[in-house]
Design brief:
Length: about 150
């Protein structure tokens, strides 16, 4: 949960860039949905951690997991390239980066469900299942948007 907060925060950072770098209404709509869902999920994870007496990290405190980037996280260089782009180049980089990012979230859910005894709590099972379903739907949508370019 602590790692996923930082993971989601990067997706929110990416959507914030989109406001000034695209002319596409469909990109803005997609970013709005991603931002809303990621912020709601961050709030859920914070509440879940705090209710159990665990620290809820600052969303930007770390993007690394054990000295390595978490699955799907964009590197500093990729984020810089995204922030430097505009128009169709930005759109392509955003979609490719967010697909990578969402695939990383799917990996994190698979790791959770693959760990013995993990994901047994009803609230966590439902949360992780929703993350999995939402990310898969958004990946499909973004892949279609890439092919429409």
């Amino acid at each position: 949960m602590q790692d996923m907060i930082s993971h989601h925060a990067q997706a929110v950072e990416m959507t914030a860039l989109l406001r000034t770098r695209t002319a596409r209404a469909d990109m803005r709509l997609l970013a709005g949905r991603i931002e809303a869902s990621q912020e709601d999920e961050i709030a859920f994870m914070r509440r879940w951690l705090e209710a159990r007496g665990h620290a809820a990290p600052d969303a930007h405190a770390h993007h690394e997991h054990g000295g390595m980037l978490m699955p799907g996280m964009l590197t500093a260089e990729e984020m810089t390239r995204l922030a430097s782009a505009a128009g169709p180049d930005f759109d392509r980089l955003f979609l490719e980066g967010m697909i990578k990012h969402h695939a990383g979230a799917l990996d994190m859910v698979a790791t959770l469900f693959g760990a013995p005894g993990a994901g047994q709590e009803t609230e966590i099972f439902a949360f992780a299942s929703e993350v999995d379903a939402d990310q898969r739907i958004e990946i499909g949508r973004m892949q279609s948007m890439l092919s429409e370019r």
